[in-house]
Amino acid sequence: MIVLAIDTAGVDCAAAVFDSDTGKVLGRVSETIGRGHAERLMAMIDEALAEARLSLTNIERIGVTVGPGSFTGIRVGVASARGLALALGVECVGVSTLEVLAQTAAERDKSVLAAINAHRDEVYAQAFAGGEPEGEPLLLELDDYLARAAAPDTVLVGSASALVADREAETAPDHYPIEIVARLASLAKAQGKPKPLYLRGPDAKPQTGFAVSRA
């Protein structure tokens, strides 16, 4: 199966073409851009397809990171993936960024706690055992995360792990390797239309008193 994988959930904008039969990435493009995913994504998909020497008509499944992560970035990726899947008549699946992080752990056979610094003394987190999720992704208070991170034999991955040593630490942005996104997308069960995984509301809110009345 030929899979097109897309990631716009964080500071990176990435696309990859993956052959699940051989387990090989045929084409891959990834840039750390911070913002501007909507302007760059479609060109990156074209670049990944060109490197793979394939066209969109060869794509049999599309996978996209659904979060948690950047509110705007996730919306761009999910909308693009769903639109392409509809146009091509192929399946579209969502991939959790926390699951991607869990796959980066050196010892995945142990208990892994994947966690993203959500700032404001909050953390996006999910526990995994043997590579499989234990429970749902959560938005935790920092103290709750630190208590869970202190459990014996727990492998920590993700930006929030730096907060264990210093809760005031300036953490680096998380990166979600597109080749892992592609592999997880190829293994994911069909789930209907993927939806953004928002564990808290957007930071931007309408200003009180400036709402426009509807007719």
How would you describe this structure to a colleague?
With 215 residues, the protein is α/β, with parallel strands linked by helices. The protein folds into two domains: 2-96 and 174-187, ATPase, nucleotide binding domain (Nucleotidyltransferase, domain 5, 2-Layer Sandwich), CATH 3.30.420; 99-163, Nucleotidyltransferase, domain 5 (2-Layer Sandwich), CATH 3.30.420.200. 27% of the residues lie in helices and 31% in strands. It is globular and about 50 Å long. The model is unreliable at 206-215 (pLDDT under 50).
Characteristics of this structure?
alpha/beta, 5 helices, five-stranded mixed beta sheet, Nucleotidyltransferase, domain 5, about 220 residues, four-stranded mixed beta sheet
CATH topology of the largest domain: Nucleotidyltransferase, domain 5
Looking at the overall shape, the CATH architecture of the largest domain is: 2-Layer Sandwich
- H/E series: EEEHEHEHEEEHEH
Strand residues, percent: 25-35%
What name goes with the CATH superfamily of the largest domain? ATPase, nucleotide binding domain
Tally of distinct domains: 2
Strand runs, count: 9
Number of separate helices:
5
CATH class group of the largest domain:
Alpha Beta
CA-based gyration radius: 18 Å
Average pLDDT works out at 92
Q: Strand order of the main beta sheet, please? A: 3-2-1-4-5
Structural class of the helices, strands and pairings?
alpha/beta
Please outline the major beta sheet: 5 strands, mixed
Query: pLDDT below 50 for ≥5 consecutive residues: which ranges?
Result: 206-215
- In which range does the helix fraction lie? 25-40%
* Euclidean distance between termini CA atoms: 50 Å
Outline type:
globular
